[in-house]
Amino acid sequence: MSEDRERDYTEELVNKYEQMLANKQSLYFDIEEFEEIIDFYCDINKFHKALRVIQYAYTLFHENTQMLLREGQILSAIGHLNKALAKMKVLEKMESTNEEVLLTMSSIYSQQREHNKSIELLKRALALGNPEYENDIYLEIALEYENLDRFDKAIEILHEALKKNAENETLLYELAFCYDVSDRHAESLEYYEMFIEKFPFSFPAWYNKANALQRLGEFDEAVESYDYCIAIQDDFTPAYYNKAHTLFKMERYQDAIHVFEETYTYEQPQSPLYCHIGECFEKLNEPDKAIFYYKKSIQTDENFADAYLGLGLMCDMQENTLEGIQYIERATELEPDNPDYQLFLVELLKKLDRWDEAEAITESLISRFPENEDVWLDHSDLFFEKGEVKKAIQILNEGWKKCPQSSELGYRKVAYLMETGDTKEAEELLFRVFLHNPEGMEDLVEYYPEVTLLSLYTELINQRILIREELKQHKKRGN
């Protein structure tokens, strides 16, 4: 039956049913016709009407289990979980080997956050060995383990599933997600390299391998893997986007722009794409072109906050700080819970000596985002720039109570201590934070170059160089 004829048939059935209700009649419909009417109401989210159809169907087919299943599924969909579960438990006793029953019960338990019970039912359904449901069941089991933060078990079940169906793209992407959120990038790379040896033309495998390489900082190899993915599936736009982002990290901004533009062939450019291109031109120090693309981004979506931020920063770069403030204020209106936008606004307000406004913003941010170290850094920096160094140190001490693991706050306090002439305490603190996070020294030097005058600074840098050389030699011997 064609789609048009099927639609006409369904509409005739629904009209017949609704006329029956209007005329208070009792007409006969077979089970398949009831199913059509129920599906119609569910498709337009009129679930209560669908339940009424089921109640009428019971009067004609009071022992039909299909209607009981549909009732349970609809009750679950509208959030009546306990009622739905009660129906399904009755049905389970009648049809304990019905996959749909087990899967529906599993879904209800999942919504009730009874994930272990959900997994138990899914495994029972999987054991029935119906290939029609197998891939979906494996995926659902993995998702339930993810809900329990058992990514190790999710990875294990997805490996098992892919041994049976290596061509299932959804399973491949879900596996990559599990590796990613559990920071097992090296394992992810190893798995997809092994997978590619068996299935060299699997574009999702090349894509996931490239993502793993990017997260491991192997940018050249990541770009090469994205190219393999694109060669196999040239319209797979996520590979273009991630390749472009990788090139951006490599500071190959012109190449990134070219790759972003390649996607025009396959899909209509959206606001984020124009914004990314604008950011590339910003890095290339071509503000006019950057502004053009930021504005193009806003024309595509007038509520895209990142584009307003970029536009504001470009105006500031062109010494139109007042106009830049207006754009960044618009970004903060669109995303009031993003502290980064507000911190950029603070920087521009400081340039115009609007210190009271800047301080009011950082004070508000501290109360709203007390565990955000950048908020404490910027708030203390306001007082440091005004010459109130002791007040700046006091703010950092308060921030450290909220962010006790923050080496950045420690490095900043080193700068403030040096400014007050307390060199001894500055060196003691520098030694402690350097041991915790040696990379943070570069940010400190950028913020407060005078730190290089400390004798301890030279010792620590030389020690770091020595350690790096030893690691290189160890790596060479290992190879």
Give an account of the 3D structure.
It is built from 27 helices and no strands. With 479 residues, it is mainly α.
Mean pLDDT figure: 91
Percent range for β-strand residues: under 5%
What is the tally of helical segments?
A: 27
Helix content: over 70%
Sequence-ordered SSE layout with sheet pairings:
Layout: H1 3-22, H2 31-43, H3 47-60, H4 65-77, H5 81-94, H6 99-111, H7 115-127, H8 131-147, H9 151-164, H10 169-181, H11 185-198, H12 203-215, H13 219-232, H14 237-249, H15 253-262, H16 271-283, H17 287-300, H18 305-317, H19 321-334, H20 339-351, H21 355-368, H22 373-385, H23 389-402, H24 407-419, H25 423-436, H26 441-447, H27 455-478
Helix pairs in contact: 1-2, 2-3, 3-4, 4-5, 4-6, 5-6, 6-7, 7-8, 8-9, 8-10, 9-10, 10-12, 11-12, 12-13, 13-14, 14-15, 15-16, 16-17, 16-18, 17-18, 18-19, 19-20, 20-21, 20-22, 21-22, 22-23, 22-24, 23-24, 24-25, 24-26
Attribute tags:
single chain; 479 residues; mainly alpha; 27 helices; 78% helix
Outline of the structure:
The chain has helices at residues 3-22, 31-43, 47-60, 65-77, 81-94, 99-111, 115-127, 131-147, 151-164, 169-181, 185-198, 203-215, 219-232, 237-249, 253-262, 271-283, 287-300, 305-317, 321-334, 339-351, 355-368, 373-385, 389-402, 407-419, 423-436, 441-447, 455-478. With 479 residues, the protein is mostly helical.
